[in-house]
Amino acid sequence: MGRLLVQLVLEEPTATLAAAVEAPGHPALGRDAGEVAGVAAAGVPIVDRYAPPTDSVTLDFTAPAAALQHLESAAAARRRDRRRDDRLHGRRADRAPKRSRPARAP
Predict the structure, then answer these.
(1) Which of these, 93, 83, 29, 34, lies nearest to 54 by C-alpha position?
(2) What is the pTM of this model?
């Protein structure tokens, strides 16, 4: 989970700890990330499933294989957000944007 990262984020007044992730089966799962990091409770339970919140930054200090899975999850979340935004703004995601064509010479 990165105890030092949790401590630093919680000490920074302009930062917000949105999630804390550990490997499946880790004994800290379900516990408060702040308490596990040795500081005050953060109100953020440690989970085993990476699900990035919208408009967030991920600090990933895991094994390379897990980092690649997290990157794929973040990309999928961004695609979902874009489709939602397209629906909200009346854009059709199934069509490529129209491109202007250069004028033909006479």
Answers:
(1) 83
(2) 0.61
